[in-house]
Amino acid sequence: MLTFTRRSLTMLPALVPFLSPALAREMELNPAALTYKLPDQIKWSPISPAGAQNAVLAGDPKKEGLYVVMNKWLAGNHFSHPHFHPHDRFITVLKGTWWVGTGTKFDPDGTVPMPAGTFVTHYGRQVHFDGAKDEDAVLLIVGEGPGTATPAEVK
User: Fold this and answer.
1) Which of 2, 9, 120, 140 lies 20 to 30 A from 42 at CA?
2) Per-residue confidence at 26, pLDDT binned at 50, 70, 90?
3) Please, what is the average pLDDT of the chain?
4) How many domains does the chain have?
């Protein structure tokens, strides 16, 4: 039987650095059960002319079927122009403030702020535009592919 005294328990924090690598090896996850990517392992696309980056997490937004992507709008008044998608898209704001507008007239000053934690549904074939103003906005987008964007701006 193993017993601990108060003195031996006070030594426990000093042992943690030596135990952690061994515990980590024992705690490896079964890749048949799940896979994951840490933030530094997520591959972001180059910055688009509109000031956004994308990272495909699951599926392929260019093909039929479910897809999951992250979209990062960079600070500095970067916006898409009015457009629509063929299917509904379900969006959660993960970080920053995302600015959203509707209609065929491009008007960044008329957009509405969506702070981190907000959930938005972009309905298929409905015109919208969106982006970031003073800070980056990171979004998680779930949709049914193909996730094409059709321009709809009226000038």
Assistant:
1) 120
2) low
3) 89
4) 1
In this prediction, residues 28-46 reach a mean pLDDT of: 95
Q: Is residue 10 part of a domain?
A: no
Instruction: Specify the pTM.
Output: 0.81
Q: Identify which of 125, 129, 140, 127 has the alpha carbon closest to the alpha carbon of residue 88.
A: 125
Res. 27 pLDDT band, cuts 50 70 90 = confident
**What tokens were used for 60?**
């392929």
Q: Give the pLDDT of residue 155.
A: 85
Residue 65 bridge partners (DSSP): 145
Taken as a whole, the chain contains a residue count of: 155
Query: Alpha helices of 27-53 — where are they, by DSSP H?
Result: none
**CB 98: neighbour CB atoms within 10 A?**
28
The DSSP H or E segment spanning 6 is helix 6-26
